Amino acid sequence: MTRGKQKIEAQRKNEERNQKQKGSQFEARAVALKVGCPICKAQLANEKQLVDHYASKHPRENPPASSSQ
After folding, report:
1. Can you give the pTM of this predicted structure?
2. What is the spatial distance between Cα 48 and Cα 19, in angstroms, rounded to a whole number?
3. DSSP assignment of 15-55
4. Which of 28, 47, 52, 56 has the fewest CB neighbours in a 10 Å radius?
5. 11, 2 in Cβ contact below 8 A?
6. Which residues, given as ranges, of the chain have pLDDT below 70?
């Protein structure tokens, strides 16, 4: 058991540690997912995943041309 100054500092450190962990995973997910499938509206992280998605989910369709190239 700690007393006095040690206890106060330990509480402060724990509070700071817990504050950093707070946040929405939905916000982080929205930032990471930048490419979307125009057919089924699936969100993907990059162009390669979009091509793989088209190959497995929409085999008769061609993937859209990449806008970054």
Report:
1. 0.54
2. 36
3. HHHHHHH-S-HHHHHHHH--EE-TTT--EESSHHHHHHHHH
4. 56
5. no
6. 1-2, 20-23, 66-69
Structure tokens at 21: 């962990």
**Torsion 40-36-46-23 (CA) sign:** negative
pLDDT in tens, 48-57: 999 999 999 9
Residues with Cβ within 8 Å of residue 15, at least 6 apart in sequence:
none
CA dist 35 → 27, 38, 39, 53 (Å)? 16, 9, 12, 11
Q: What angle do CA 33, 38, 43 make, to 5 degrees?
A: 20
